[in-house]
Amino acid sequence: MINYKIRKRNTPIATLIKQYTDKKSGKVSESRREIQRRFDCLDWKDQKKILMEFLDSCPSDREWAYGKLYALWDEAFVPKVRQVWETYREPRCAWSVIRFFPVAYIKDNLDMFTGPRDYYFICLRMVEENEDFAVDRSRLTAYDYLSILYHQGGTISSGEARDLLFMIVHDLCVRGFSQNDMRMVYNMDEVVTPNEFRQIDQARYYLFTLGDRKAIEAFARWNEEVRHHILCSPEYKTLKEGVTSVFELQQRHLTMLRKYAYLALDDKYKKPGECDFLDEEHSLNEERSLDEEPQEPLDLGTLVTENSAIKNLVDKFDLEVEGAPF
Questions:
Q1: Is residue 283 predicted with pLDDT exceeding 50?
Q2: pTM of the model
Q3: What is the pLDDT of residue 179?
Q4: What string of H, E and C letters represents the secondary structure of the chain?
Q5: Do the beta carbons of residue 241 and residue 287 sit within 8 Å?
């Protein structure tokens, strides 16, 4: 006779919520896991009640609730979220505040939003709402500022457009970048240039849409100069020496790109003390350079004489070593 395991029956969601909110129930963790597992399939009234309870709970539970709030926003959440936001100022809570709170509240409390890209998303919201809002250029990166100009549908001079393109490259070089900052596909057998940056690819689209061709053409000429510098570099000549993986080859390409793109920038885009990464990076060719003094070949006879452990091994296996005194 086959014995089938009887599945555990679902506890009513109302019971789970009660157990979760009763910190003395001894079932807070168990009920939390079950609530989160079922959440997406629950009725809206239950989802709303759960989110309200989680917003009143510990930091990790609030973090979980913030992600759900953004997708399931309702005006009923405003009082509770405002209370939580003004108490804790947690970054993920800011997402919903910026996206859904009244514009007047955001304008009156700009100093509360200190996340790395909070101001950028505030600007996007103002553009979306057609608000009269003076953008503070100093609070935006070159890339984010260009994005705002694009969404505003405004105009831009060729000089400013060119400066923004080069500042995007500058910011990437100073910050550092990885494969994730590059376009999905590029030929690893060819030189990797600034054109392969995702942000540059998008920025050129913004400028093309805004009607500026001169900046794009100027950048293309500069990109070819960077390609030439990399091709003539000592690092490129030894690029594939000792490479053991595709990842290592990618890293060598990106290291060269960071160095020569930064060096090719006009001095007006650079700031004192920001190019320390050029001194910190090790040479891509870790093998001994051609002009380095060659090392003397290893003298096994001397090694056996000076090292008793090696001498014992030679004796044990009855080996003959030229130059050994036995």
A1: no
A2: 0.76
A3: 87
A4: CCCCCCCCCCCCHHHHHHHHHCCCCCCHHHHHHHHHHHHHHCCHHHHHHHHHHHHCCCHHHHHHHHHHHHHCCCHHHHHHHHHHHHHHCCHHHHHHHHHHCCHHHHHHCHHHCCCCCHHHHHHHHHHHCCCCCCCCHHHCCHHHHHHHHHHHCCCCCHHHHHHHHHHHHHHHHHHCCCHHHECCCCCCCCCCCHHHEHHHHHHHHHHHHHCCCHHHHHHHHHHHHHHHHHHCCHHHHCCCCCCCCHHHHHHHHHHHHHHHHHHHCCHHHCCCCCCHHHHHCCCCCCCCCCCCCCCCCCCHHHHHHHCHHHHHHHHHCCCCCCCCCC
A5: yes
As given in the structure block, the two tokens for residue 36 are 């989160």
Asked if residue 195 lies in contact with residue 168, where contact means CB atoms within 8 angstroms, the answer is: no
pLDDT of residue 299: 57
CA distance 208 to 220: 13
Question: What angle do helix axes 59-71 and 91-100 make, rounded to 10 degrees?
Answer: 30
Residue 43 in this model has a pLDDT that exceeds 50 = yes
